[in-house]
């Protein structure tokens, strides 16, 4: 999921285990202590129902943490694909 923060990368699409993720752009995440972190905003379609969902991915993360929308989320359960 590595991508540069350049504007040209917006709209870039990549596949993770057969699921397409589209890059929406960099965004800033602020934690409860007020520290700012750069993250990347991606959208994809839920592995179960196909609904669009958004996910924030840390800059050096190799994989998205989410593969399903909020309605279908099932942590620890494998995506049947
Ligand atoms: Zn879903």
Describe the structure.
- The protein is mainly beta.
- The chain has a domain at about 5-55.
- It contains no helices and four strands.
- A hairpin with a 5-residue loop joins β2 (about 20-30) and β3.
- The chain is globular.
- It binds zinc ion.
- Zinc ion binds near residues 51, 68, 69, 71 and 72.
- Zinc ion binds near residues 68 and 69.
A few lines on this structure:
With 81 residues, this protein is mostly beta strands. It contains no helices and 4 strands. It has a domain at 7-57.
- Average pLDDT confidence is 84
**What are the segments in which pLDDT stays under 50 over at least 5 consecutive residues?**
none
Estimate the strand proportion.
35-45%
Question: Measured on Cα atoms, how large is the radius of gyration?
Answer: 13 Å
What is the oligomeric state here? single chain
- How many β-strand stretches? 4
N-to-C span: 20 Å
Q: Which ions and ligands are bound to the chains?
A: zinc ion
Number of helices: 0
Secondary-structure map:
Layout: E1 13-16, E2 19-30, E3 36-45, E4 52-57
Antiparallel strand pairs: 1-2, 2-3, 3-4
Bound molecules: zinc ion.
Salient structural properties:
81 residues; 40% strand; mainly beta; single chain; binds zinc ion; 4 strands
């Amino acid at each position: 999921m590595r991508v540069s923060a350049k504007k040209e990368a917006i709209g870039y699409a990549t596949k993770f285990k057969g699921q397409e993720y589209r890059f929406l752009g960099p965004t800033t995440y602020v934690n409860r202590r007020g520290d700012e972190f750069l993250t990347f905003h991606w959208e994809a379609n839920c592995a179960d129902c196909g609904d669009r969902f958004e996910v924030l991915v840390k800059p050096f993360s190799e994989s998205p943490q989410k593969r399903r929308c909020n309605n279908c989320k099932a942590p620890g359960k494998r995506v049947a694909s």
